[in-house]
Design a protein that fits this description.
mainly alpha, 2 domains, 3-stranded antiparallel β-sheet, 57% helix
């Protein structure tokens, strides 16, 4: 009776959470329909930092600031996931010529000591200048105000929190089921006990591996499902484990409902979506023609097609805009046929190697403002632009993108 009651209660909770996901999606659609549809500015009127906030939230803004610090020659990648000052003196721009977010990172980066790259990204995300940038995007009608989104986000986060608690209980249950299966009397004792003990010892590693490959709560629940499925035959398929496997399947079905209804619903308006579409069209030269601006006007020729270095006086501009739209996680992936490729963008190849050197801690699933960014973090393997991996004594030293 206890197993039946737990299963019935969990299923009812699943249905309530799914209903909340559907209801909040409907409320979100009504908010979108009542918001601005046509942007008051074009993509060329927004800075890379504003584009980064619009495309990926506060952490993406921090990634853009870190990219500018690297391209300006004031920071290098030192080891995996670490950033340090350049060891060799070179001509670098003054800190006053950098953006406020980048100046903050420059002040936080000490001399003679490397610090984690994700710590710098978090520092830029939490700066006071972020608030001013947010208010500008809201005044332009590209983001909704927190007051307008509060009811939807509160209900959505509460439903996801309940689902995460159920998933955490499943993770603990998988470990406990392995312990119970080990202590159960059986003949012969040897090989089955050793296999279960090895599975229990490997469980933390499975959780870590699933976190790196899948990320977040879904990765942990997936590892728990694998362990429970492996323990069930050894325990001769008791009703508790069979019911637990069914609840795990239901959990992933509920997660599919969460993703299909929009994931973590962000505050970006349809006008903000239009600006991002215009910016991505500028980034991808495969587009046959450039879309019109916010008032139906055609953008000037210098903003159409391939981003030429002569179009912008600052050589770091195209690379920073690419970072804002793609993020470090996408930059770590090798260029392919899918997605914006941005060939000929000055400094982009350097940023790809730098993003890989910063590791999965930078550019992981977004948990900040815009949200809805989940999935597999990019690869952390790093190679220098010239080929071999750098040694500790001779760290990777950037050169300026105008030489690319």
């Amino acid at each position: 009776m206890v197993v039946e009651a737990i299963v019935l209660g969990t299923v009812l909770c699943y249905l309530a959470i799914a209903g909340c996901y559907a209801a909040t999606r409907g409320d979100y659609a009504r908010i979108l329909s009542a918001g601005p549809r046509r942007p008051a500015v074009g993509a060329e009127d927004l800075s890379p930092f504003e584009l980064g906030m619009l495309a990926g939230g506060k952490r993406r803004l921090g990634e853009v600031a870190l990219a500018e610090l690297y391209l300006s020659g004031r920071a290098i990648a030192y080891g995996h996931g670490m950033v340090a000052r350049p060891w060799q003196p070179e001509q670098r721009p003054a800190a006053d010529s950098l953006a406020p977010f980048t100046r903050l990172l420059d002040a936080r980066l000490p001399s003679g000591r490397a610090i984690p790259a994700d710590r710098l990204v978090a520092a830029a995300s939490a700066s006071d200048a972020t608030t001013a940038l947010l208010w500008r995007l809201r005044r332009l009608g590209l983001l909704f105000s927190p007051e307008r989104m509060r009811r939807v986000t509160f209900a959505r986060n509460a439903a996801w929190g309940a689902q995460a608690i159920i998933g955490t209980a499943g993770v603990l249950f998988a470990g406990g089921s392995a312990v119970v299966a080990m202590t159960a009397p059986r003949e012969p004792v040897g090989i089955v006990f050793v296999l279960l003990a090895g599975l229990l010892l490997a469980y933390p590693f499975l959780l870590h591996l699933a976190h790196r490959l899948v990320g977040g709560v879904p990765g942990a629940v997936l590892a728990a499902f694998v362990v429970t499925a492996a323990v069930a035959p050894a325990a001769k398929l008791p009703p508790e484990l069979v019911a637990a496997l069914g609840l795990f399947v239901g959990w992933f079905a509920l997660y599919g409902v969460y993703r299909m209804t929009g994931g973590r619903l962000g505050p970006r308006t349809r006008a903000g979506d239009a600006v991002l579409a215009e910016a991505r069209a500028d980034l991808d030269p495969s587009e046959p023609s450039a879309p019109s601006g916010p008032s139906g006007r055609t953008r000037p020729p210098e903003h159409q097609g391939r981003a030429q270095p002569s179009d912008r006086p600052e050589p770091r501009g195209p690379a920073l805009r690419a970072t804002a739209l793609l993020g470090f996680r996408e930059l770590r992936r090798r260029p392919g046929r899918r997605g914006p490729r941005a060939p000929g963008c000055p400094g982009l190849s350097l940023l790809r190697s730098f993003a890989a050197a910063c590791g999965r801690g930078v550019g992981g699933p977004e948990g900040g403002l815009v949200g809805g960014f989940t999935g597999v973090p990019g690869s952390g393997a790093w190679r220098r632009v010239g080929g071999g991996a750098p040694s500790v004594g001779r760290p990777h030293h950037p050169h300026h993108p105008r030489g690319d």
